[in-house]
Amino acid sequence: MGRYEGNPAAVRALFRGHEVHRDVYIDPEIYRLEMKHLFANAWVFVGHESQTPNKGDYFATQVGDQPVIQVRHSDGEVHVLYNRCPHKGTKIVIDRAGNTGKFFRCPYHAWSFKTDGCLLAIPLKKGYENTGFENSGKGMRAVGEVKNYRGFIFCRLADEGISFEEFFGGSLSSIDNMVERSPAGRLEVAGPPLRYLHHCNWKMLVENQTDTCHPMVAHESSAGTAVKLWKELDMPEGTPLPPAMEIIAPFTSPYEFFENMGIRTWPNGHGHTGVHHSIHSDYSEIPGYMAKMTEAYGEEKAKAILGENRHNTVYFPNIMIKGPIQQLRVFIPLAADKTMVESYAYRLVDGPEELTARTAMYNRMINAPTSIVGHDDLEMYERAQEGLQANSLEWVNVQRLYEEDEDFSEEAVENGTTERQMRNQFDAWVKFMTADRAMQEAAE
Amino acid sequence: MSVSKEQLIDFIYDEVRMLDEGRYDDWLALWLKDGHYWMPLDYKQTDPHNVTSLMYEDLFMLKLRVERLNGARTFSQKPKSRCHHVIQRPFVDVMDDAAGTYVTTTFMHYVETRLDEQFLLALTARHELALVDGSLRIANKRVDILNCDAAFRNIQLLP
Q1: Cβ neighbours of residue A342 under 8 Å, at least 6 residues apart?
Q2: ipTM of the complex model
Q3: Least CB-CB distance to A364: which of B55, B77, B155?
Q4: Cβ–Cβ under 8 Å, residues A201 and A385
Q5: Fewest C-beta atoms under 10 Å: which of A146, A212, A306, B70?
Q6: Which domains does chain B have, with CATH numbers?
């Protein structure tokens, strides 16, 4: 037993309001407890329903460190099952996606299961007669609860706990906006995700999503150089920026731009940058799109949908979406110092293909393993992961625009350079890391 | 004007040598100005636009990539990466002297290193070349990574 197992007071003490202890990033025991408590008690993103459009379609992924399968059952509902045969533990599917037909069949001993997990058949069944073996409960196990919110599949591994609506609350407005940018009100995944492996803690990546004081510093080499090269081309005044420049140039915006853009936080660790404007605000209009949106929603609502320019919305614990460009990134924890980042592009159903192309361009320019922007982010995270080993100082600062007695149970809008959203995440982190103990105490 | 098969093959060898030696200005000078360097994300990907790729870059983006490598505040290049190509003899798939266009396919191994890390990629490079004013130029280049669907760490130079 380590320092933190069964010791919620020690876990709580890792977050002091304006600073967090380095163990949240580097301690393997804390990582293990995150998988056991935080990722079990929170609502975690699984996939998008368009990844499994037809009956029998499946998609294999991870929720925390748990192997799961998202599958479309014969009744059309999306189920989330553990990717483990109840017999010997064999993973039922090993490819990332496919169609299993009407049932799953384990490749080891041919036990078969309906696509809702129920046991269908076992070869040579009579061998289990009079052994105490009961059919019931011998199927593939389902996660605690599943919610399909406008196409986005989330699950809670724990059988009991906070409801989906209470967990996300007002933060769902960012998903709403992303979905409503489609004239049909639907999104579809556009191809496979970029997969990018980082040797750092998953929370560093999540925190960076609302870190508005790093782009002009860490990305000077890419965005700053792009602006310089464009100037050197000496194009005639008024020449429209090519799409690549529209995407990369705003990364060099001054501090004032980011201060004024604002940050909103919601309870349970969710929040977004870009309340008033964002780096996505000045993208050029796509001809014909506004007309289609007006036809679908009416002029007033169409303007309201497209007028919203939220930058990054963090859904605690481990995804970020960009509504205006239909991008989603998942930060999958693999170890205390290892994180897989998957970056997805989505297509607006009935929307212009130019927007899909822009999203795909953003994805590869900013978030690919080959990205000149991503390279510098990874460099910063990994330097931090290594630097945190220094015993001279055990605390990490999250103090920018900190106020004593901050109340994260209320929605708040603040200066865009505040680190309040990082503190909001740690407030939720403590809550869900210790939720099992809190429930136990309530029951006692 | 026409070019020999040997000239086409030498061109490919010269190009990877420029990349390995970091002679990027020479390398950029090989490109036609509307060319694209495409590195697909999906195995046998056909669409560079509406699904994500690892790279799909025009000459402006390639210049930016090269310029950044030498920047004073390019933190992920402190210290710098190094790379090394080992190539098979290129196949010349198309030789159209009348149009002045040529296509080659080259299998290669690519090694990139920085600090204590080194990785190996198996690549298939497809070059569309054009004969312009008596010299061969790159019209388009497509680089397929054998394990394109695997998770990668930073790939910082040009495979």
Answers
A1: A193, A194, A195, A196, A329, A330, A332
A2: 0.96
A3: B55
A4: yes
A5: B70
A6: 5-145 (3.10.450.50)
